[in-house]
Amino acid sequence: MKAYAMLEVGKTGWIEKDKPKCGPKDAIVKPIAISPCTSDVHTVWEGALGDRHNMILGHEGVGIVEEVGDEVKDFKPGDRVILSAITPDWDSLEAQRGFPMHSGGMLAGWKFSNFKDGVFAEYTHVNDADGNLAILPDDIDAGVGCMISDMLPTGFHGVELANIQFGDDVLVIGIGPVGLMAVASAAIRGAARIFAVGSRPNCIEIAKEYGATDIINYREVDIVEQTMALTNGKGVDRVVVAGGNNDTFIQAMQVLKPGGIIGNVNYLGEGDYIKIPRVEWGCGMGHKTIAGGLMPGGRNRSEKLIALIQAGRIDPSKLITHRLKGFNKIEEALFLMKDKPKDLIKPVVILE
Ligand code: NDP
Ligand code: ZN
After folding, report:
1. Atom of ligand 1 minimally distant from the CA of 85
2. Cβ of 242 below 6 Å from ligand 1
3. What is the Å distance from ligand 1's center to 174 Cα?
4. How far does the centroid of ligand 2 lie from the alpha carbon of residue 255, in Å?
5. How confident is the model at residue 230 (pLDDT cuts 50, 70, 90)?
6. What is the DSSP letter of 112?
7. Are residues 85 and 167 in the same domain?
8. Looking at residues 93-109, what average pLDDT do you find?
């Protein structure tokens, strides 16, 4: 089969590979829509996970089930399904402890385009199909379905990690597609003011539509000064980090109230250490928590997010700024994600 792969750090290209084989609990799915992710960019061009050779990229997509194993109960060939970015082994001890994303080792629930071939292919393999696939209802198109693979659940996870409570003032650092979903999720969780940090005009526009009350353009003003000014010097209850760099934690800690939580979903691709400012961390005694996590993945989460979309509470379609058509456009879409032209939020490729 034909596929688009990471050939080595810094290099991608088309390859031919054998079609994957289906085990008893697995499914083979034919992707019909995919979306590249900023994580693919960290993986290839920063070498964030280490070297990978001829590994098929991509972990966001919608497909049609081609084949299922003997033990799969709830899915059959022909079903239109979401390919969740994270596909844990649900019978693992880590999943039983509440951390399915780390099933089999740290981050090992993230299999596509990390430990095994991803979805930028004619066929892809899904482990634990009953636990990881979800039917995409007919009223949600395949492009929007791709946003349920990763952007929506990750944005929501940032909000879960920060444990946002009703009435909280929240700073969301980064309003690319992940941060935008965090803004929308924070609004659903009952945040009071939502300060959104970003600079691209269309991201700013959509952040407001999703519930941001104030915009902080970090290229023009200082995030800390501006946040403190907007909160009369009090700071915020919660911070969600969905962009920035290793130094972003310095700023997050500086604006966080005692007892506050930083929920990080940003994928830190470079460097060895993160700095935490000692004094603003209460000399280690400020009850300020940093919670960083990979989103959990799995069928239940996808189905709940579908319920939110169908109830009209969240609309991820606004993230899609570029719709390409045809399998051979996968490369162009990935490079759009790498180069991030000003008008881009998220591209999707409709494959058929
Ligand atoms: P984008 O690159 O599209 O967005 C990043 C955002 O951060 C933009 O709003 C950008 O602003 C802003 N930003 C950049 N630099 C700074 C800075 N120095 N200070 C403050 N803000 C800054 O990324 P995505 O939304 O696609 O992804 C966000 C992160 O989430 C990535 O690292 C991605 O790999 C990760 N991720 C994590 C997952 C998880 O499970 N934890 C899953 C999926 C993705 P501007 O408007 O100027 O561009
Ligand atoms: Zn992703």
Report:
1. 42
2. yes
3. 5
4. 28
5. very high
6. B
7. no
8. 97
Number of folded domains in the chain? 2
Shared domain for 209 and 280, answered yes or no, is yes
- Shortest-distance Cα residue to atom 34 of ligand 1: 39
Residues 176 and 280 in one domain: yes
Residue 113 has pLDDT above 80, yes or no: yes
Domain boundary among 259, 292, 325: 292
Q: Which of 252, 272, 292 is the last residue of a domain?
A: 292
- Lowest-confidence segment of 112-121, 265-274, 323-332 by average pLDDT: 265-274
CA of 107 to the centre of ligand 1 (A): 19
Q: 247-284: b or e for each residue (b if 16 or more CB lie within 10 Å)? A: ebbebbbbbbbeebbbbbbbbbbeeeeeeeeeebbeee
pTM attached to this predicted model: 0.97
Distance in angstroms (rounded) separating the CA atoms of residues 203 and 322 = 14
State pLDDT tens for residues 53-88. 999 999 999 999 999 999 999 999 999 999 999 999
164/162 Cα distance (integer angstroms)? 5
**E strand or H helix at 131, and its extent?**
helix 129-132
Q: Is the pLDDT of residue 270 over 90?
A: no
Residues 327 and 188 in one domain: no
Domain that holds residue 76: 2-150+295-350
Ligand 1 within 6 A of CB of 179: yes
Give the domain CATH number at 81: 3.90.180.10
For ligand 1, atom 20, which residue shows the shortest CA distance?
244
